[in-house]
Structure formats: structure tokens, C-alpha cells
Amino acid sequence: MPVDPAAFAEALRQYAAGVCLLTVRDDIDDVGTTVSSVMSVSARPPLVAVGLTAGGYPAEVLEEVGRCGVTVLAAGHAIVASRFSSAGRPSARHLLESVPWRRAEGSEAIVLEDGLAALDCRLDRLVRAGDHVLALLEVTDVPVVARGGIPLVRLRGRYVDAAGEPAGRG
């Protein structure tokens, strides 16, 4: 018997997940998207996996360019996460006008200076997984590591801090 899609979605909403910003720089612009399906895969070599919507523009650009940046967002980045999760969003640079950022050396992707951590990555491969793709990323550098800080978390469809309280909007 097939799983009810609504029950499946509601069950997964109970799972708290850290929130990241994935950015890609191509020849024309900067593309970014909020991701909460991120996991460590391997320490040797350093690999992470990120879930992206199959056929979505971020996955398409990442496949074409082959490199990206991933910033682990702090609780104060709830507005940034919301901006990058909206459809039809403008260039990543426009969405980050008041947020300090820089370019990661290898990928030239945007990473947030006040993120909890940032990873400079090279695409190892994309793996089709239903209506998504898993981007397997080799970490080539760690340009940002904060000592402490409260992570932004996605729980029950809301951005919250690690204690489950509504995340800061700053």
C-alpha cells in the first residue's frame, strides 16, 4: 500500500534539520538556495551531500559550473533563509545587500562571513533520487568556522533556534 504523501510530509516536518545556504557563481550571475537536506558523507576524502530539487535552476547551474559554496546559517539568518527559499528570487548578491559575505577562493561562490561555517566545494556527482538530486560535494576548503553561535534550524515548517524558539529575524 502506498504511503500517503501528506502523512509522509507531516512525519518529516517533525525532524529538526540545520539550514544552509548553497551558492553557485556562473559566468553571468550568482545563484543561491536554502537547503536543509545536508549531511556529512565522508572524512577521507571530505564529502558532503546536499539535496536539491531535480530540474531546479540551482541544480542545473551547479551541474554546469561544478563548484559551489555552502554556508551553515546561524539563528540570526532566518530572513536570509526565507529570501533564498522563495521562488523567482533575484541574484544572490541582491538578496545579501545588508549581509557581510565574501567569495570562497576555489569556487568563487558567495559564503557568509557571519555563518557558523562555510565550505568551498567541487561537485563530485549528482545522483537522481525521486523528485530530487543528491549533489555529492568534495570539500576543498573551509573558509569560515565560527567558534560558538546558535544554528538556524528548520522544524515543523518554521525557522527556529536550537531550543525550538522562533529564530531571530536579524
Superfamily (CATH H level) name:
Electron Transport, Fmn-binding Protein, Chain A
What are the low-pLDDT stretches, counting only 5+ consecutive residues below 50?
A: none
CATH structural class: Mainly Beta
- What is the CATH architecture assignment? Roll
Question: How much helical structure, as a percent, in the residues?
Answer: 10-25%
Task: Report the structural category.
Answer: alpha+beta
Question: How far from one another are the termini?
Answer: 46 Å
Estimate the global geometry from the Cα principal axes: globular
CATH overall fold name: Pnp Oxidase, Chain A
Mean pLDDT: 93
Write up what this structure looks like:
By secondary structure, the protein is of the alpha+beta class. The protein has one domain (5-156): Roll (Pnp Oxidase, Chain A). It has helices at residues 5-12, 57-65, 78-85, 92-95, and strands spanning 17-18, 20-25, 30-35, 38-42, 47-53, 67-72, 101-103, 110-112, 117-129, 132-145, 153-155, 158-160. β9 (117-129) and β10 (132-145) form a beta hairpin. It is globular and about 50 Å long.
Task: Outline the fold blueprint.
Layout: H1 5-12, E1 17-18, E2 20-25, E3 30-35, E4 38-42, E5 47-53, H2 57-65, E6 67-72, H3 78-85, H4 92-95, E7 101-103, E8 110-112, E9 117-129, E10 132-145, E11 153-155, E12 158-160
Antiparallel strand pairs: 1-11, 2-3, 2-6, 4-5, 5-10, 6-9, 7-8, 9-10, 11-12
